[in-house]
Amino acid sequence: MSRREIREHIFKLLFLLEFYRKDELNEQAQLYMDEVESAGRTPQEEQYILEKFHHIEESLGDIDARISENSSGWKISRMNKVDLAILRLAAYEALQDEEIPVGVALNEAVELAKKFGGEDSPSFVNGVLAKLVRQEPV
Question: Distance between CA atoms of 26 and 99, rounded to whole angstroms?
């Protein structure tokens, strides 16, 4: 499984955050992993996907605060849910995941926005993330 495919699965799990209560997330994440075609996915890749999802989930307060600070005129609650999931993943990768170069995190976020978002999603995601990574670390 490629890094892009892994990132897509994490994005889809993050999208679930908008539809389930916190106490349901573990079960829903596992149901998602069970339903997804497992051909070509190793147990280590599945573990990596779930661990990264849970790391992002645990950091959500900080991540959402940073996104909110850098999305002038847009409240988190009013953002397109696809864009928000992409922003959360990319913000985590750019700010907290030392394995992922910042440029890669931003580029991959724009690619996800092109694939899953609306017409304006790539430019919106790129604009918010560009501000976010230029900002001084908290």
Answer: 25
Question: What is the band of 65 on the pLDDT scale with cuts at 50, 70, 90?
Answer: very high
Tell me how far apart the alpha carbons of residues 121 and 35 are, in angstroms, rounded to a whole number: 27
| Structure confidence at residue 40 (pLDDT) | 67
pLDDT tens, 17-30?
A: 888 777 887 788 87
Cα three-residue angle 51-76-62, rounded to 5 degrees? 45
Mean pLDDT for 45-65 is 92
DSSP 40-92: T--HHHHHHHHHHHHHHHHTHHHHHHHHHHTSTT--GGGS-HHHHHHHHHHHH
Query: For the whole model, what pTM was predicted?
Result: 0.89
Domains of the chain: 3-134 (1.10.940.10)
Query: Which helix (DSSP H) or strand (DSSP E) does residue 93 occupy?
Result: helix 81-95
- Residue 88 and residue 59: Cα distance in Å, rounded? 10
